Amino acid sequence: MIVFTGQRRDAGTKSNVHFVIHGDENDTHIRTLADPHRRVLQRGGVDAFLMSVPKSLGPLNCVRIWHDNSGKGSSSSWFLKYIIIRDLQTMQKFHFICQRWFAVEKDDGKIERVLHVASDLEKNQFSFVLTKRTYHSVSDGHLWFSIFSRPPSSQFTRVQRCTCCFVLLLVSMFLNIMYYDLSKEAKSTNTGSLSFGVGHASPQQVMIGVIVEMFALIPSLLLIQLFRRVRPRRQQQSPLRQALHKIKPNVVNKVNEQQQKKKNKEKIWMLPWWGILIAYALCLVLVGVSILFIIARGIEFGDEKTQKWLASVISGIFSSVLLTQPLKIVALAIFFACFCRKTTSEKEATELLDDDQIGLAADEEYLHMFQNKSLFIRSSTNRAQRLSKHEISQIRDNRLKEIQIRNVIREMVLYVCFLVVLCGVIYSNRDSSAYYQVDHLRKYLLDSKQENLDFTKIATIDEYWNWLEKSLIINLRAQQWYNGDPPRSLTGFIDDKSNRLIGWATMRQLRVKAELCRQQNVFSLTCAADYSLRNEDKQSYAPAWQNQSSQIYHSSIQKAFTYQSGDALDTYVYVGDHASYGSGGYVYEFRGRLSDLQSNLSQLHQLGWIDKQTRAVIIQLTLYNPNVALFTAVTFLAEFLSSGGVFSSARFEPISFYAFTSMPQLVCTIIYMLFICYFMWLEVRLLIEMKWKYFNQFWSYVDVGIIACSWASVGIYIWRLGESRRIGKLFEKTNGYVYINLQLTSFINNALTDLLSFCCFFGTIQLIKLCRINRKLILFIRTLQCAAKELLSFSFVFSFVFLSFLCLFYLLFVSKLPECSSLLGTAQMLFEMTLMKFDAHELSEAAAFLGPFCFSLFIFIVVFICLSMFVSIISDNFRRARENVNDRKEDLSTLIIERFKRWSRLKTFTEEDRLAERDAQMRGNYYDPIEKFPDRIDQLFVALDKETLRCARVSNCNITKEKRSHCAACRLKKCFALGMNRQLIQVFSPTKLPHPRPLGLLRNDRSTLTRDQWTLLSNLINLHETETLLIQQQSLLDQESTRPIQRRGKALLVLDFFRNCLIWMESSLKRLKYFQSVSNTTRHVLLKHNIRSCSSFNGFLVTRKLVLFHEPWLTHSFYKIFDEQLLISIFKIHKNFDLNDIVIKLFLFVMIFSSNCSPLTFDQSYQMESLDSSLESLHIQDIFVTLLWKYLLYQYGPMEATIRYVILVKAMVDMISVKAQMSSVLVYEDMINETMKELERSLILQD
User: Fold this and answer.
1) pTM confidence score
2) Proportion of the chain above pLDDT 70, given as a percent
């Protein structure tokens, strides 16, 4: 019997696997797949078992197989591929295909299956053949992996496999070194290579390694065939053959004849035993030749060629492990699955089932040592355990909870590691010196300290020329040191002596055409409009913007009046504050000595290079600081508007072209991309499983966002790498004396920064997903989910309101306030007004009446109304989300903390905890009918609502105790005939009696309560919960919470609360048959002595459920009626109140029929009546006291039941004392007396 375990994750098991084989003639007893000498049924394992049976089973039909789930954690599950059973008498093989999980948490949750004998059609299915061939090929055909996963029955040993791998490695190194010795590859440059410290690898080197590996595969295949086709020198006789020969010699002889015929048909070429010597000799020859040539030729190689040779060797090894061998395995598996599906071709099974393979070689021994020459081991006397459905369900719940905890912990660790790597990648790309570099250049070049030379305060053309001639060109050339020394070795540096100017600076002007004015006027016939690409002037002129000129000027001056396109200038479109400017223009280059620059600028000033048609002047220069290895693209923009005026702006963009400045940065980047690939794989799996529902989840977009931004950043990085190499070649070619425009490079660098920023944003926001382990933290997300539709509707209304105010403020103050000069600025101002960060005096100065009026209108509508609506929507949905949270569902964070405490030994697992778990498991096998009664009634009425019950006969079935389950319609009809009232049955009851606390099964014997007592207990609980006191008080509190805070906490609210408690007693007593059965005198005495205390006792239960004492305004209303000392006493009673609501409700009925539950006073007129009423209600009180005491025994046991009963009596006495103090308050006493009169009229005088 051969059992194949799957290769999937957690496919192996440590549980006890049992089976029963069913045949045509006989069945086996329960057997166990076990081995006392080794572990079986491991992941990817093939286990062979020998089983004896007392009688022949005949042709097999099926196998019933299961396990007891005794393994811990993931080792309890098992994935079975298939089973092959061979009858050693008839040599017939039977296949049982499974390909399913035996696990409570996977697949269909079953741990027991029945496997039928597979037919030829099932054995030839493509999926089965493919998985079978792939499994065998990976474990035996992959040269590298088979070292660890070699089949035990294979004659190709691990030593031989390691030898072949070693020969393959050396032959690959030999072929690579021969290629590099004969080629001129080493003289080429490393264009397109990826550097790793001192080493590098190019695509050509990788391809060389892959191709050479293909050639090196040929001698390795020859060696593998030599090792596989060597016959063993000697072979021991199999113990199985010995046993079969002793049992039935004729059967063994017959088997030998069949095998001999089979071998004659299948003639396989095999080498004699000494062929192994030839194989090892060939290995030595190949190894020796390879080492000799590697040493001889490798000495002549330089560092560069050696690095390339090593890169090719390493790429070849990886291609062999990850490409060549896997492709060979998959191709052969698909070929055999498609074209060679022979049922009799069972190579992987034949190696274990064939009699020749049972024998051992001379250097092998059997794992099992048989004592007393006995081949067989007796089966264990332990009884095979089969779990019930309830046990499986309980184990499944526990297992799913463990998996959820493990997944949460793994996800937490994964996200934390991912966030650390992400921060390492992103922040390592940020140079800390960039800010200081920009800050220095901004202060240095803008001259903000000098009032007349401040670039940011330029307002006229003359001021702009003054800044050019007296500030910019002086700073572009290195001047003398502070002590008068000349700036030696600073050629090309600017005057700060730290930054070198790459090439030269350029000044580009963009002009517009002079056109006729749209509106004729007497002042001017021609006008110059604002800049646009349509009206840009692209005509070349002579100096002074003349068509022709007779004077001769310097070439740079003439070039400044000649239009050049963006392609010729290597410039791009520039986006300013007022327009987007084209890539071409009229360019002046700051080339030459300082004196030449000064004279040229002076001449341009005189020629009117900047006139009324000028709309923008862009100065661009590139600086390099060798101290911090930073390039800086500097751009000065001066915009000349048609309305008159100059608006200046400047940009300083630092750029670093170094990809990886350290090895940790490279490692973090590689790990980060591995994380992204892993996340992509998870998202693809999730998309396949969920399909269109995948796009309904918010976190799906977050995951897709981080994946898209990551891969986009890779593409941008490659783009930036290409630009940096282009600039590097140009810089190296000209030694830095060429104009290099970094505008495109800075755009690429900014795009990369933006993508990395969004990656950091998405990666950080994913930490919110970890909040789902805590119910209180998940309320935030649940609230947003509940309020999504309402917030969407509110957003439309708010958008229209905000848009209307945006138009109003923009049109009113567009020419009066700088904030309202544009729609975007107006929107920003309105948002500041919403946040109360706006100075209203500016509006008053702009418009004396409309300013304050519009401001007040905006504050009233947007802040007071709209924002209050927003807060109300959030508050209301938060309350709904909190109500929908299942409080009885165990918090996952609590479980994780509990497991951590046990793991870290901070909390010991006591005997009481073990007893509690065992009691819970044992109690789960039993069902309590009284606890299922309300649910069954609900199911009955739901069924009645859906479909009317009809009798299958003539509606006259004889319903007796024995036949009551035969006809539901007639049984219900008889119930109604006997007086069952439909209205008295609670259709949807949320109340369920909880399971008793696990203090030992003997203490919690439910037989202490009779069936009638359980029925009475259920009816009393339903009677208490049918009345709507809790709902009334909740609605009253909700109504009060909607009022403003100043109007909350009135004294009338407390009086209404006590009045409602008394009214609830009235409605409850009307439905209580025990109260209706006593006389009017007894009713009067019970109402007078007990009703007040009972209503207060029930009020404590309501306050605890509604958490009233946590409302500050409600506590404040108590202070308006009662004093502080009385309220402190009430808090103490409330604190010591029993936590079990059922006990409180039962004790309430005990108090109703007590002789006296009020402060004792002597009233002779009622002494005899009280005595008679006490005797009349004594037997009723005895019923409820007995019921309460038995329930306490059932729930807590004798000791704790006594303690809890004493605490109840103590709470009642304390409450009576408090009631006596409350009676001194006249307002409260008047309300109670008035309500009591109404109760007496309703409960006594109604008869």
Assistant:
1) 0.55
2) 71
